[in-house]
Amino acid sequence: MTVRLCVGMFGVLVGLAAPVSAQMSPQDVADGLSELASVPAATAGRVTEHDLEVAVAGTRVRDGADLVLVDDAWHVGSLTKSMTATLAARLVEAGLITWDTPVGEILGERIPDMDEAWRDTPLRAFLTHRSGMAANLPARSARQLGDGPRALYVTEMLAGPPDATVGEFSYSNAGYVIAGAMLEDVGDAPWEELMQTHVFTPLGMTSAGFGPPLGEAIEGHATRLFGGIRPVGQGFEADNIPAMGPAGRVHLSAEDMLIYMRTHLVRDAGFLSAESWDVLHAPVGEEAYAMGWGVGEDGSLVHSGSNTLWYAVAFLDPEAGEAAFVAVNSGDLEDVVEPVDTALRELLGAL
């Protein structure tokens, strides 16, 4: 199985080769990853329709005394994108919006200065990275916005013309923020509240929240200028700005992540219709990107996420009826991407 590469601030689609012959347990995988110098803690899990197994290893903070617990939350970065798309499917089925509803119809009155080039751009284009939207709000604007409202982020992104050719693939975190704002408008609630009401609560994902995990929790780790990693705490620098929520600010336990993945794996008919699952998982264009998933030639789904302080990957193989999830609390991508990729392959087929 092969998935083409796509790199963004929050997401890196990994190219997975065929499963390795030596299959390992989640505990062995988590233990192995936590032994890396750049990985304070790791989690690994796998799920089928009827079975779920998850393991953790390491410490919440580098050189800390508190061991990571199985119900601790992990930041999953751009794995949030498929969750935002799943929310969209729920609101489509509720009759509040359609996949082809244009952004101008939803946000046009609120943003009178919206560039005309955006007005006919449909929801599905933002969710498949084909809107022409720039990857992110400019860094200076993001710093100025801070923890300000999502509406200001959206207004600035829609005030100027498309950054890329409309209809062609261009990975965009900002596009998912626009999609989230459209859902907020039709759902009459903040994206965070809509996620809890329409996705997390129905699926029993009680640990799911937004931003960095707080309290007695795992911390993300940034790379040091001259090598190594450092914990980032739980303050403002521990995640990207709140406005970016729909693109990548969810945290949750590994078990809840696997529960979410199982829903997609079995295409739960009690949660969404077959038509909605088809839309969510349908590859678009040469890049074979669906809505929050890269799609393999065999129909497998994969995505990864990082807010530059954590790294997580989810892989679903509907044909084999299994899925795997691996995450570490390190943003040292040069050191962790390959070991996490290997860990996924070691988990596949082991149930």
Number of strands: 13
Q: What is the gyration radius calculated from CA atoms?
A: 19 Å
Mean pLDDT: 93
Q: Which word captures the global form?
A: globular
Oligomer: single chain
Q: Roughly what percent helix?
A: 25-40%
Order of helices and strands: EEHEEEHHHHHHHEEEHEHHEEEEH
Biggest β-sheet, characterized? 6 strands, antiparallel
| Count, helices | 12
Unreliable runs: 1-14, 17-21
Query: Order of strands side by side in the largest beta sheet?
Result: 4-3-13-12-11-10
- Assess the beta-strand content as a share of residues: 15-25%
End-to-end Cα distance, whole Å, is 19 Å
Decide which structural class fits the backbone: alpha+beta
What does this structure look like?
By secondary structure, the chain is α+β, with helices and mostly antiparallel strands. It has twelve helices and 13 strands. The protein has helices spanning 26-34, 80-93, 103-107, 123-127, 139-145, 150-159, 173-187, 191-203, 245-248, 254-266, 274-281, 333-347; strands spanning 6-7, 12-13, 41-47, 52-58, 73-75, 209-210, 221-223, 229-231, 250-253, 294-295, 301-305, 311-317, 322-328. The strands form four sheets. The chain has a six-stranded antiparallel sheet with strand order 4-3-13-12-11-10, sandwiched between helices. A hairpin with a 4-residue loop joins strand 1 (6-7) and strand 2 (12-13). Helix 6 packs across helix 7 (173-187). It is globular, with a radius of gyration of 19 Å. 52% of the residues are buried. Mean pLDDT is 93; it is low at 1-14 and 17-21.
